[in-house]
Structures are given as C-alpha cells and as structure tokens.
C-alpha cells in the first residue's frame, strides 16, 4: 500500500526525533547566548544592558527549550509502562526549573528598567510575556496540586487533565509569540534600520531573525509531537503498551 508523501515524511521514530529536537533546542540557546555575548556586550549583574541580556537567554532556555522537554516527558515510550510517579516527578521538576528561570529572567529585565528609569509593561511584548509566565505559574501549581499531592480524587484529576494538556500547548505557543515579539522589539530599539532592504541589513539583524525562526521551528515540532496520536501514552491495559520496544527506534 502506498502512503502519502506527507505521511511518510512525518512517520519518524520517536527517539531519533527527540535527538533532533534536542540538538535544535541546544542551537536555540547557543544562538541567543551568542547574540547577547557578541552583539549586545555580554552579561553582568550590575543593572546595565548586560544585566538585561540575561532576560532573553533565560526565557528562551526556560520557557521554550526546557518547557518543550517537560511537555514531551509522557511521550517517551519508557514512560508508557510501570509506575507513573517517577515521570510525574521529572515532569514537575522540569517545570519547576522553567519557573525559576522565568522568574530570574523577569527580575533581570525589571532591574534594568528600574535602573534606567524605563517604564515597565509598556509594550505588547511585555504584556504577552508576563501573561505567559503568570499562566504557566498557575498551570504548574494546579498540576502539582492535582497530580502529585495525594489528596486529589481521581474524578478531579480526570476532569482537569484535558485542561492541563490544552493549556500546556497554549502556553508553549504564547512563549514562542513572546520570544519572537521580544526579538523584534530589541532589534527595532537597537538597530533603527527603518525599512532597509533585507540584503542591506546588518549581520546582527540576520542572526537574530534566524534565531526567531529556530525558536518557531522548535515550538512547532514540539506541538506536532504532542498532537501525534501514535506518540501518546496508551491506557495501562491497552495492547499498545506491549509494542514499546518497537517504537523506540522504529520498525
């Protein structure tokens, strides 16, 4: 039987896909770090622009790359069998690391603004970014309360689980939007290129635009993996759980 080309292209084994995604996530972090180090002056904790540079690095690392990793924990075939508690703890720990990095990233930008008398929350990027972090914080707290604390009844977990999954994908999309708008805003403030032809843009603009595309690609691949039915954890009594070894590297 012949398969549609799109189906064949997307019919990838999960672990090689994760390896590719891990490399892409590392490249995103490397790009944003190189941008801030090479073109924006590096990093410091003195309230200067070098303090601000921690903001994009921490946000991309936490709210995009680590958040994407946390979202895919339950898609790992080894998580399909045996007790779920270790995977819940790993998922929660990664989300907690995301929260810590996000708080540090917000602290960096607020300190920079306060040191230079710049108003806080003056742009769409700032509104969107803070709303994303607040929504993520509520998501983490609700998930911890419902799935890790022993008092939550089974009916409550079953009721909340679809909402947890929905808002998980929504927060990732908001994180991507926040990062892309932040990159665009920083370039406008720093370079003031106006409507320069693309071929005449300085290397920093091309580099930062490439970073934005890499972030977008990473997020889209994560969302695609989350949406793929064959990569979702089956029920404990499903016969699919006996096929886990075959799914590790493909047929």
From TrEMBL:
It is found in: Late endosome membrane; Lysosome membrane. Keywords: Electron transport, Endosome, Glycoprotein, Heme, Iron, Lysosome, Membrane, Metal-binding, Oxidoreductase, Translocase, Transmembrane, Transmembrane helix, Transport. One of its GO terms (cellular component) is lysosomal membrane. PROSITE patterns: CYTOCHROME_B561. Gene3D superfamilies: 1.20.120.1770. The chain crosses the membrane at residues 12-34, 54-77, 89-112, 124-151, 163-183, 206-227. One of its GO terms (molecular function) is metal ion binding. Its cofactor is heme b. This is Lysosomal membrane ascorbate-dependent ferrireductase CYB561A3. The lineage of its organism: Eukaryota, Metazoa, Chordata, Craniata, Vertebrata. The gene is Cyb561a3.
């Amino acid at each position: 039987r012949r398969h549609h080309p799109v189906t064949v292209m997307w019919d990838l084994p999960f672990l090689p896909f994760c390896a590719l995604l891990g490399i892409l996530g590392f490249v995103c972090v490397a790009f944003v770090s190189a941008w801030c180090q090479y073109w924006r002056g590096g990093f410091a904790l003195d309230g200067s622009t070098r303090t601000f540079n921690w903001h994009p690095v921490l946000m991309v690392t936490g709210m995009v790359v680590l958040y994407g990793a946390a979202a895919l924990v339950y898609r790992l075939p080894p998580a399909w069998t045996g007790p779920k508690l270790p995977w819940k703890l790993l998922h929660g720990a990664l989300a907690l690391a995301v929260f810590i990095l996000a708080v540090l990233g917000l602290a960096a930008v607020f300190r920079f603004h306060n040191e230079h008398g710049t108003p806080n929350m003056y742009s769409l990027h700032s509104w969107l970014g803070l709303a994303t972090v607040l929504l993520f914080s509520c998501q983490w707290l609700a998930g911890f309360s419902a799935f890790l604390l022993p008092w939550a009844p089974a009916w409550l977990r079953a009721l909340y689980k679809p909402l947890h999954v929905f808002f998980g994908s929504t927060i990732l999309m908001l994180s991507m939007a926040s990062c892309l708008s932040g990159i665009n805003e920083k370039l406008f403030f720093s370079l003031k290129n106006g409507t320069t032809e693309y071929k005449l843009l300085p290397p920093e603009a091309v580099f930062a635009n490439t970073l934005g595309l890499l972030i977008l690609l990473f997020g889209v691949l994560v969302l695609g993996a989350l949406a793929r039915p064959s990569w979702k954890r089956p029920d404990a009594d499903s016969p699919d759980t006996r096929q886990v070894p075959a799914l590790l590297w493909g047929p």
